[in-house]
What does this fold into?
Amino acid sequence: MALLLVRDDREYLLERGERLETDLGILEVPEDAAAGEVVTTHLDEGFTVRELRGPDCFNHFERTGAPMMPRDVGLIMGHTGVSESDTVLDAGTGTGVLAAYMGRAGADVITYEQDAEFADVARENMELAGVDEQVDVRTGDVTENLDVGPVDVLTLDTEDAATVVEHAADLLTPGGCLAVYSPFVEQAREVARTARGVGLEGVETLETIQREMDFDDRGSRPSTAGVGHTGFLTFARRE
It folds into this structure.
């Protein structure tokens, strides 16, 4: 697993034994570097070692597009209860933020990414997060690989998610959970309709909105900078 080297507003993601050249000097990360330890450059400038956590994956993974936001990841983790001993089928890997979170929770994740270059980047990201043994990044179309299963959780971030949801009753174990991220409400509507059509229970779609709070001498109120909409999440469960 990689480590974060932190100083003020600077953060560097490095492997143990890796060498970094900065304007503060050359930094070589010791093989035995531990969280909380301060390592110094050859100019005696210190950086604090920090273990990688979920938000750091979002901030420092190499990106192949817009990664899933932590607010959406949190809802998926909370609504599906992904945990140790679960098997997850995921599609639309992208940067791999969601897959990494689920792997860090102890689940065994099989995730499909159609773009081979994106899949290679995701594999590197899983190594950085230390979950490459938990997360199996596969190149391909999940609709052509639905013989995987049964799984405890099915997570989808693909345009053709409804096509996969048609098979959810067979893919999921009894009580297993479905979570689908949709950027457009029309896709979310189709996913919800399909989920009900195949007999899934508790089908609900949520719009994810997050507003930051502004605090100043005049008072406190939600920020006027923007609504903070990301997308739509549809959840359901097999009986």
The chain has a mean pLDDT of 93.
